[in-house]
Amino acid sequence: MGAYARFAAACILGASGYLSQGEVNAADLVILSNQGAAPGVRELAAEFERVSGHRVTVIQPDDATLEQRINDGTADLVTGNPGVIEEMVRDGNVVASTVTPFVLAGLGLSVRAGAPKPDISTVESYAAALRAAESIGYSRGCSGTHVAEGIAELGLTQELANKTTRTEDGPVTDYLARADFEIGIQQTNIMVDVPGSDYVGPVPGSLNKPCQSNVGLLTGSEEPDAAREMIRFMVSPEAAPLLRRTHVEPITP
Fold it and tell me: For residues 22 and 27, what is the distance between their CA atoms, to the nearest angstrom?
């Protein structure tokens, strides 16, 4: 049993005061997760529930739901790219001292289901695949920014502009499934094993700039102690293999 699991077991047995009159004081936690971190956060939430006795709901909110949940105090933790979390700290919505980096998600490329898979094993073959594609799509946000930077490094921005779509809502794989474009590029962890698309592989070499996600305690949380415990779990040794299972790389202290 790992260090965190032993700690959690002690909590359940009452060493940390979770037992009250013979019953476990289980918290109900709500985590607001950004799209890029959501698969890993769900994996961690399921295991945290098992070892801690707390209940955890993971929500991937749209902008309106995110704002509502923050304003009405019906969420405890939020994950997002560093700039987004920093803005929440400045706005007084996230406790600065709790902000913790926990995951890096690299970039990958997928095609429509059944379509030929291009060779992207090297930077040169990746560039050739982009040139040969009839249409290309990639997201906005962190992954889209990094994809665009990589295309710029290859000197292909102008050449590819007329056949490139920047997606607005939902994962790139949704657009691939509708045949909106031929190849799509986004974070690997939200592209693997998605119906309607076939994952090809990671963007090669230095062009694969990962996106970082941080987690922080919302100032309106009604369960700050349990939420802080969840943050500790998210960067514990026990969390690392769970995150890698979702095709991301953990960040540990």
Answer: 16
- Give the pTM: 0.86
- 74: helix, coil or strand? coil
Single-letter amino acid code for the residue at 8 = A
Provide the sign of the torsion angle of the four alpha carbons 219, 215, 63, 242, taken in this order.
Answer: negative
Are 35 and 79 within 8 A, CB to CB? no
Per-residue tokens: 58: 């993971």
Contact call for residues 203 and 121 (beta carbons, < 8 A): no
Quick: pLDDT tens for 168-222. Answer: 888 999 999 999 999 999 999 999 999 999 999 999 999 999 999 999 999 999 9
C-alpha–C-alpha distance, residues 133 and 21, integer Å: 65
Residues 6+ apart with CB under 8 A from 66: 32, 78
Place of tokens 């969420």: 75
User: In the numeric block, which tokens belong to residue 32?
Assistant: 């607001």
Give the chain's domains with CATH numbers. Answer: 3-104+213-250 (3.40.190.10), 107-207 (3.40.190.10)
Euclidean distance between CA atoms 247 and 44, whole angstroms:
13
Phi, psi dihedrals of residue 14, rounded to the nearest 5°: 110, 0
Q: Output the DSSP codes for 112-126.
A: ETTSPPPP-SSHHHH
